[in-house]
Amino acid sequence: MTSIEIRIELKKGVADPEGKNTKKTLESLGFQGIGDVKSVKVFEVEIDATPEDAIKMAEEMCRKLLANPVIQNYKVAVM
Amino acid sequence: MTSIEIRIELKKGVADPEGKNTKKTLESLGFQGIGDVKSVKVFEVEIDATPEDAIKMAEEMCRKLLANPVIQNYKVAVM
Lengths: 79, 79
Prior knowledge:
Chain A is an alpha+beta fold. Chain A is built from two helices and three strands; from the N terminus they run E-H-E-H-E. Chain A has a single domain (2-78), classed as 2-Layer Sandwich (Mth169, Chain: A). The radius of gyration of chain A is 16 Å and the shape is elongated. The termini of chain A are close together. Strand 2 of chain A pairs antiparallel with strand 2 of chain B.
């Protein structure tokens, strides 16, 4: 089993309402000096394959299901 | 500015319907050899503070807002 981390982020310039609202709420709770807040989705996937094959499979999973190429980038790494 | 990664995971034993459904859907798309699929929420937060202070602030953010201590664990790290 290879443990893979799949990280799905919004592309630059794409609005991140979850990040923005989190920042606003943190500020309303009194936190100061907060810059950008970015929300990221991560999947940890166990795959019964060599690390090399598992990475290729995970990239295919992103292309076929997990990521929306119009607004999201993905990164795949062995954990 | 210190960039902090806040990683919010479900505690062991807590149901992860998003992970389970992702696994099911990947399998229905023909992917084989998939073990556990875990969904994780990550926030990348820029904080105008030293790394040490930024980590303390981020931990406080988790306690006050971002994580639900009943079902979630959090990890904070400098990026």
